[in-house]
């Protein structure tokens, strides 16, 4: 019985891969094919902190995307829903991602709008975001 289930599961996965049902890596099926810089904005969870996901996803991030213009290749938003175990708190209430093809594209597009972007943070959270800039290697 177990061998049959494993065989069926393998067939389902193989069929999904062959038909393109399962998503490919970001680099293969999105505008990120040439994007190599990722700016990650982390909003750590802490007792008594607030975060308005509706405002962040429908107002703040679209505003940021508009200000950064064509230099921004894609943005994504994660909403924290659970910790590592059911007993663990959510480590981050939200995480935002901004993708660029070069570090200078991020720096040059962010710099003129930095104050406007930073001043909007108070509209959706009282958390000091943690920023990490990474090179996407895969």
Provide the descriptors you would attach to this structure in a database record.
138 residues, alpha+beta, Alpha-Beta Plaits, four-stranded antiparallel β-sheet, disordered N terminus
Please outline the helices and strands.
Layout lengths: L1 H18 L6 H4 L7 E8 L8 H16 L3 E8 L12 E9 L2 H8 L3 H7 L9 E6 L3
Antiparallel strand pairs: 1-3, 1-4, 2-3
Helix percent band: 25-40%
> Could you say what the CATH topology is called?
Alpha-Beta Plaits
Form type: globular
Q: What profile does the largest beta sheet have? A: 4 strands, antiparallel
Q: Termini separation (Å)?
A: 38 Å
The proportion of residues in beta strands is: 15-25%
> In the CATH hierarchy, what is the class?
Alpha Beta
Number of helices: 5
Number of domains: 1
Order of helices and strands: HHEHEEHHE
Strand order of the largest sheet: 2-3-1-4
Gyration radius (Cα, Å) is 19 Å
How many beta-strand runs? 4
- SSE class: alpha+beta
State the CATH architecture.
Answer: 2-Layer Sandwich
Summarize the structure.
By secondary structure, this protein is α+β, with helices and mostly antiparallel strands.
